[in-house]
Amino acid sequence: MLFDLDMIKDVYARMPKGVQAARKLLGRPLTLSEKVLYSHLFGQLPEKPFVRGKSYADFRPDRVAMQDATAQMALLQFMQAGKKSTAVPSTVHCDHLILAKSGAKADLAASLEMNKEVFEFLASVSNKYGIGFWKPGAGIIHQVVLENYAFPGGMMIGTDSHTPNAGGLGMVAIGVGGADAVDVMAGMAWELKFPKLIGVRLTGEMSGWTAPKDVILKVAGILTVKGGTGSIVEYFGPGAEGISCTGKGTICNMGAEIGATASTFAFDDSMVRFLKATGREEVADAAAAVRDHLRPDPEVYEHPEKFYDEVLELDLSTLEPHLNGPFTPDLATPVSKMRETARMNGWPAKVEVGLIGSCTNASYEDMTRAASIARQAREKKLAAKSEFIITPGSETVRYTIERDGLLKDFEAIGGVVLANACGPCIGQWARHRTGPQDEPNTIVTSFNRNFAKRNDGNPKTHAFVASPDMVTALALAGELGFNPAADTLVNEDGEAVKLDPPVGRELPPGGFAVEDPGYQAPAADGSVVEVVIRADSERLQRLEPFAPWEGNDFTGLRLLLKARGKCTTDHISMAGPWLRYRGHLDNISNNCFIGAINAFNGEANKVKNQLTGEYGEVPKVQRHYKAEGIGTVVVGDENYGEGSSREHAAMEPRHLGVRAILVKSFARIHETNLKKQGMLALTFANPADYDAVQEDDVLDIVGLTEFAPSKPLTVVLHHADGSAHEFPVKHSYNEAQIEWFRAGSALNLIKAQTGG
Asked: What are the tens digits of pLDDT across the range 422-434?
């Protein structure tokens, strides 16, 4: 299928003029990201260039993509916007609400029955508003987007943090919250702080056991989980040309784990090959016609330090395979050092499960490389010592690898193929463990995210991230410290054998094939379509507008929670079984902050109720405050809201009556989500003031009547002993965002502007 060709041609028709104007405005050569950003501005060029990391800019993205868990809330919001159809091409992808338990066929059937109400809602609302609908089983959103919609030089947003996967095809693709998606689907400007630029120059060529995944695993180890915050990462250099299009996608996808706004690669022949292989030869030809505008200017390659805010150098010829983890995706360990590192840290050496696939590593190339290892394992009389699980990225990939015999290769060493969905990655995975459930154990995955309890709900599970090649090798060995480049395995005949490096195919020699890709086009006339939401539904709930700001400073606020250490969106709003309530704000709010660690007692989901003096579960305590008409504050640590784009992590506290979030620093998407929902997102001017917050504090936030960009607010802590502590707090609100706060939410403003 070929989607939106006219839109793509229009982008390319406008791009030369936009790039030339931007080059004149800046008075210098341009990076790829600058070309894409400046040619996608909403309205005219500014009089002066945007200041990276400071200026806010309004953009006009080319498309929107939503996965089923986030689409529910995004579309419930869009239904209030008063629009008859979306202003840009948009899609919904059913991939998150599918179990991973027994196998593809049984799990898909069970998930269809369990989530029937939600899938029918998403199908009907897509049908009504002109949104393309990808049915359950069609595949994981980012793989489907890469195969069907992504195009070089385009700009898209998606309601999933791994939207940057499309950077593998040269897009600037950005993960956002549902309220941002509503802006774009309603035809309004989409606001973003103009990103900083990090350049990663790749030289050399990968070989042996090194894979594209190792590039981002290494980069994550250098930059850490917050090192890319507010930045676009551009990969360039001679080494980039030798990486396949889907390999580039793998690298861009996991850029979410360093906090990057997006990651991207310059247009090259690998993208041409992939576009043609996926039935988009016309897109390839159209891109080739504006090739120079889809790559950085030559001067950028010659002197990158002049054009990027930060430059990293990475020699692919010397890059070693890595394992990242446990409990954080930026703890990078070369495979050759893992045995010693695991011993020193007391990490469980036995690998219980190896999982390959997911949105970031489920391409045809990934599967052929892993299958080549499985094939030689059988030839060398080896079997997997760990449970081995395979998750194809799309129905197109699954059908093709089945046709080409790869699934049989996996099954021959005990592999189990699951549905084309996200289950094992996001907590929809049923472990089959025989030992105690709370004992330390190790799994390895080719996924991205490995926070505590992320995959299986067990805080003792040590999850490590690696390439599919390494995961397959470790599943065969059953040992975390195994290095396939140097170590041997004992086969069923008692012989010591060594694995050969993997061999893959970039694209299927017989072409991609599929019987039913899983796409459902919307109705030509959506006005006749009715979206039905049962009044008594436990899964879906029509939204009520949040109340506007009362016009006064906040006084008498109670401290709900002071979170210590890592507080990701998984800690604020867990996934797993809670995914079923993503369309019902009140029900899902019962998971609000249940994973966050209370700084005062070191426990999760146990906070002091200042009205009773008793300790209780966070949602219950907060609901008590709300019933009494008392607002609250949540205090957090560094990089608060790291992880998924999950806007429920912002909507739930807002719904329950939390008025402000005060932290040492925010992750980008979450800070924006808080602003969109009319919350106060504040940071300590002096991080040491975090220590001054006491368990029984009553807080005032002063200065709201004069709320203005760059003007600090003041927090006053009233301690239980009668003393007080006053300090300034910073914010990053501009004038438009302050209006969101005053109106009660960005959606309230959209409704007022559209008459919805």
From this structure: 988 888 888 888 7
**Residue of 95, 214, 330, 570 with catalytic role:** 95
Full domain range(s) for residue 426: 322-497
Tell me, yes or no, whether 616 lies in a domain: yes
Whole-Å CA distances, 302 to 96, 449, 656: 43, 35, 54
User: 59-86 burial, b for 16+ CB within 10 Å, e for fewer?
Assistant: bbbbbbbbbbbbbbbbbbbbbbbebeeb
Whether 646 sits among the annotated catalytic residues: the reply is yes
d(CA 461, CA 441): 5
Which residue intervals of 660-734 are DSSP H helices?
668-676
- Based on the domain organization, do 331 and 419 belong to the same domain? yes
Which H helix or E strand runs over 90? strand 90-93
Tell me how far CA of residue 694 lies from CA of 273, 405, 624, 717, 725, in angstroms: 59, 62, 20, 8, 10
pTM: 0.91
Catalytic residue chosen out of the listed positions 63, 201, 322, 449? 449
Q: How remote is the C-alpha of 289 from its chain's centroid?
A: 32
342 and 436 together in one domain:
yes
Q: What is the CA radius of gyration of the chain?
A: 25
Residues 567 and 707 grouped into a single domain:
yes
pLDDT for 756 equals 56
DSSP 259-303: TBSEEEE---HHHHHHHHHTT-HHHHHHHHHTGGGGS--HHHHH-
CATH number for position 634: 3.20.19.10
- One-letter amino acid at 28 equals R
Cβ pair 649, 576 in contact under 8 A: no
679 occurs within a structural domain: yes
pLDDT, residue 434, reads 75
- For residues 272 and 285, give the distance between their C-alpha atoms in angstroms, rounded to a whole number: 8
Residue 423 belongs to a domain: yes
Task: Please report the pLDDT score of residue 435 as a whole number.
Answer: 73
- Told to judge if 644 belongs to the known catalytic residues of this protein, a careful annotator would answer yes
461 and 345, same structural domain? Answer: yes
H or E segment to which residue 71 belongs: helix 68-78
- Indicate the pairing of strand 63-67 with strand 132-134: unpaired
User: What total number of domains does the chain contain?
Assistant: 2
Catalytic residue, from 161, 467, 644, 745: name it. 644
* Residue 584 appears among annotated catalytic residues: no
Of 497, 515, 537, the position where a domain reaches its end is 497
Q: Is 160 a catalytic residue?
A: yes
Q: Which two tokens stand for residue 731?
A: 């914010």
Per the residue annotation, which of 93, 96, 375, 454 is the catalytic one? Answer: 96
CATH number at residue 432: 3.30.499.10
Cβ neighbours of 317 (radius 10 Å): 11
Report residues of the chain scoring pLDDT below 50.
none
Active site includes 96? yes
Q: Which two tokens stand for residue 241?
A: 């040309």
Tell the residue number behind the tokens 């002109």, with chain if given.
130
pLDDT at 547: 96
**589 included as an active-site residue:** no
